[in-house]
Amino acid sequence: MHTFAASISKVFYGTLIHSVSINEIEYIKQGLLFINSQGKIVKVVKNVAQEDVESVLDGVDSGKLVTLNDDQFIIPGFVDTHIHAPQYTFCGNGHDLPLLEWLDTYTFPRESKFADRDYARKLYTKAVARSLRNGTTSACWFATIHLEACKELVDIILQQGQRAYVGKVNMNQNSPDFLVETTESSVRDTRAFIEYAQAANPSSEDASSALVTPIVTPRFAISCTSDLLTQLGQLATEYDLPIQSHLCENMNEIGFTMSLFPDSVNYTSVYADHGLLNERTIMAHCVHMKEEELDLMKEKNAGISHCANSNFNLKSGMADVRKMLNKDIKVGLGTDVAGGYSPSILEALRASRTCSVARDMESSLVVAELFYLATVGGARVMELEKTIGNFEVGKEFDAILVNTAVENSPVDVFDHDSVETKFEKYLFVGDDRNNEKIYVQGKEVRLPGAQVASHK
Ligand code: GUN
Ligand code: FE
């Protein structure tokens, strides 16, 4: 009994809300959730009356107890399965052009600035803080081709305490002179980046898993030669790493890709044919997928990042998430900043609902499904479903302490509100002002105050 008490670092008492399946949100009322010094959830007790808290605490020092009020609840942190760190610099701009023209006109010139490491440090500090503040406790980041700036992004993520996959982008063809690599430098720098990122995690006994993982990141097939794609597939195998890229986002992109890779039967097969499609692969968009491409995704157990906000802004189209789910393909949500104008997964969730209603009202996504996609779905796409996504005992505590009664926040609660309606208001009306505290691996994240305006 005493050993248990000593190993506990924090206990929460109040309402806990999480997905237990794609169809079910569990509202744990008067819950006690125990976290150990490694940031793992070791015990959850439901329906504990106030007068019984002390006995259930079982000797844990009451100084470790955080008691929530009726307007507060705890949810799992959000998982952003697709976001571009350098593109935060033009988040909200440039929605007048479709994908390929948007890349040439806005994206590539902005990304080229990250050749400067000092610039990268300043801008990445803001991008990561903004993502965390919005409740993204796990993110799959694209950086740029620049090795030094990529290292900076890893350092900043570790300083701020987000869980992340970080990718050095590869581009050796169909790219402007100011943002292109040779095959040799691309592979050499990717290897150097992988080794840097793997060594950067503090090898402490008090963390249960690494926070930052490098991810192999061919930008998309258009920007990589067949030779480079093959070598990147080999690197992913050699280092046992996840892989991320873009797939079937836009019709012109698909046409151009098939003209470059005539030996592959479809766009999805281009990645498969180069050893880049497996259970650790995350493909963003997947808007215009043929039946056999979705079947190939399922066969390989690869995951999809649904980026509805971006798909509306760049007029890419509306992905058929219902069909993906019916085929039991792993799906999570992505903000895709800056194709998406918001770094918030709440906004991604809302755009996903609008997308599903616009596609087919009869089979549109319901709240339980949307919340699942934003949390457990994303964890599955990252192959982290045993580590994060909900509050099962044994998982690590990545969470948001939400307060629905923050002055000047967009959420108003009334006497008739229940826990369920407060939660739904947060999902559809709330923003980062309602995210009172953010936890990753059991530790409260301290955002650099000067970098992002405080709303309090
Ligand atoms: N395809 C290749 N690069 C990009 C990118 O930066 N954003 C989006 N949305 N699609 C891409
Ligand atoms: Fe993207």
TrEMBL record:
InterPro entries per the UniProt record, alphabetical: Amidohydro-rel, Guanine_deaminase, Metal-dep_hydrolase_composite, Metal_Hydrolase, Metallo-dep_hydrolases
GO biological process: guanine catabolic process
GO CC term, one of those recorded: cytosol
Occurrences of domain Amidohydrolase-related (ranges): 73-445
Catalytic activity: guanine + H2O + H(+) = xanthine + NH4(+)
Pfam family membership, one: Amidohydro_1
Protein name, as recorded: Guanine deaminase
Keyword field contains Hydrolase: yes
A GO molecular-function annotation: zinc ion binding
Taxonomic source organism: Entomortierella parvispora
Function field: Catalyzes the hydrolytic deamination of guanine, producing xanthine and ammonia.
Pathway the protein contributes to: Purine metabolism; guanine degradation; xanthine from guanine: step 1/1
Record's cofactor remark: Binds 1 zinc ion per subunit.
Enzyme Commission no: 3.5.4.3
Cofactor needs: Zn(2+)
Similarity annotation: Belongs to the metallo-dependent hydrolases superfamily. ATZ/TRZ family.
Keywords: Hydrolase, Metal-binding, Zinc
